[in-house]
Amino acid sequence: MKPPRLASVIERRLLVNYRVDPEAVAPLLPAPLRPQLVRGHAVAGICLLRLGSVRPAWAPAAVGLRSENAAHRIAVEWDGPDGVETGVYIPRRDTASRVNQWAGGRIFPGEHGHADFEVRETPEVLRVAYATRDGDTRVDVTAEVTERLEGSELFADLDEASAFFRNGSKGYSATSSGAFLDGMQLRTDAWRIEPGRVTAARSSYFDDPERFPPGSATLDSVLVMRDVPVHWRPLPAMTTSGAVRAAAPAALTCAG
Q: Is this structure's pTM higher than 0.85?
C-alpha cells in the first residue's frame, strides 16, 4: 500500500541543537549517510514536536489527531542522482500517541517508540520533558523565546539557522530491520521560526559518554516554530549498508 500524504499543523516545535565532533557522529550513521558540517562541526539535536490536525491531506482539519512527539536527529548529506543531497538521520522517534506508535512504519513511514510527556508552556517559556516506556531515553528541556539568536557557534544569525533547517526537509529514520531507512519530507509555504535560549537541558542520548565522549557534544542553540501548517510527503526507502554503533531502537516527526 502506498503511504498517504499527510497534513497537519506544527503547534509547537523546539529544535534543540548541539554542535558535535564529526568523528563522534560518523560511527552512528549508516552508509551512505555522512555528517553535514557547519563551520567544521556536525549538527545534531532533539526535535520536540506537538502536532495538531494530523490527517490524510484530502481530509478536513476537524477530523485530525493531536499528539506530542520527539525525535533525535543528525544533519546528514549523501550522494543523490543529481548531486549532494541534505537532510536528517533520525536514530529514534518517540510519541505519546498509541495511534502514531501503531501506524508508524505501517501506514506512514517512521517507526515510533512510546513515551510519557510533561509539557508546560507560556508564550515566552516552554518546557518539554519525556521518558520512553522502554527506559532507554529521557529528555528535559526548558527554553525562553528571545528577540535574537545569540551565542551560537553554528549559525551567525536567525536567517542562517532558518535556511539550514528549511533545506534539511528530508528525514530518514532507522527501522527495526536495519536494511533500509524510512523517508518523509516536510513541506510548507508558511515557514517561520523564532530564536530562543536554553535555560536547562538534559538528554540521556547526548549526555551518554559512551556515545559522545566528554566535550564531543555541546549544546549550541534552540529554535522555536509555532502554528505552522505543513504537509508530509513519503519518500522512497533508502537502502543502507554497514553496521551502526550504539544505535537506539527505533513519520512524520521532525523531518526538516
A: yes
Q: Which three cell numbers stand for residue 64?
A: 485530525
Check if the beta carbon of residue 88 is closer than 8 Å to that of residue 171.
Answer: yes
Q: How far apart are CA 161 and CA 158, in angstroms?
A: 5
Q: What's the rounded Cα separation, in Å, for the pair 162 and 182?
A: 25
Angstrom distances, CA of residue 34 to CA of 25, 85, 99, 243, 249: 9, 11, 32, 14, 20
198 vs 225: CA distance, rounded Å: 15
pLDDT tens digits along 74-106: 999 999 999 999 999 999 999 987 766 666 666
Buried b / exposed e along 73-101 (16+ C-beta atoms within 10 A) = bbbbbbeeeeeeeebbbbbbbbbbbeebb
